[in-house]
Specification:
With 184 residues, this protein is an alpha/beta fold. It has a single domain (8-183), classed as Class I glutamine amidotransferase (GATase) domain (Rossmann fold), CATH 3.40.50. 30% of the residues lie in helices and 27% in strands. Strands 6-3-1-7-8-12-11 form a seven-stranded mixed sheet, sandwiched between helices. Strand 4 and strand 5 (55-61) form a beta hairpin. Helix 1 runs parallel beside helix 6 (171-183). The chain starts with 7 loop residues before the first strand and ends with a helix. It holds the Pfam family DJ-1_PfpI. GO terms for molecular function: transferase activity. Belongs to the peptidase C56 family.
């Protein structure tokens, strides 16, 4: 595991519906490697996760509200999936602003499963090659991106790096790609 001391990662999620392992596993692994990870949601309190978009999962504390985040302080933006989470977050104007800020400043964004919906909504997938959960493929293609079926895809096009993965089964490859990006 890479040494990530001094690196700051911002995780954007909705207060309900994030896929449990797509939040839990990267946060635990990245914190374990020394990164400072902040979980931000629209409301303070907690995040209620789901397993497989259906069964209730664990709850996680919200460190900060998205509207209060100073995104310029972070090295990487992480967007977990979960259908309800991603579909709700894509319409959140504060989340849109944060994602756009990361891309326009050249900082990397990592997104898994349904997480790319926020990037579709903001127009940030245009010209990018990425992967996601299969059902997001048409949205990505319609928004001008190229979809591939890979465990983890790293795309440096358009002046910023996008790291994507398909589902919780790809978490090791996904976190590995994040660590590699942050230590490059």
């Amino acid at each position: 595991m890479a040494e990530l001391s001094g690196k700051k990662i911002l995780v954007l999620v909705n207060n309900q519906g994030v896929e449990q392992d797509e939040l839990k596993v990267p946060v635990e692994k990245l914190r374990g490697a020394g990164a400072e990870v902040t979980v931000a949601a629209p409301e303070s309190g907690e995040v209620k996760s789901l397993v497989g978009d259906w069964d209730l999962g664990e709850t996680f504390p919200v460190d900060q509200t998205i509207s209060a985040v100073n995104e310029s302080e972070y090295d990487l933006l992480l967007l977990p999936g979960g259908t309800l989470n991603a579909d709700t977050l894509r319409l959140d104007e504060d989340a849109q602003k944060v994602a756009t800020s990361f891309a326009s400043s050249g900082r990397p964004v990592a997104s898994i499963c349904h997480g790319p919906w926020l990037l579709v909504e903001t127009g940030l997938v245009k010209g990018k090659t990425l992967t996601s959960y299969q059902s997001v493929k048409t949205d990505i293609v319609n928004a001008g991106g190229t979809w591939v079926d890979e465990q983890a895809k790293v795309c440096p096009a358009n002046g910023w790096t996008l790291i994507t993965s398909r589902n919780p089964g790809d978490l090791d490859a996904f976190v590995g790609a994040i660590e590699e990006q942050l230590t490059a």
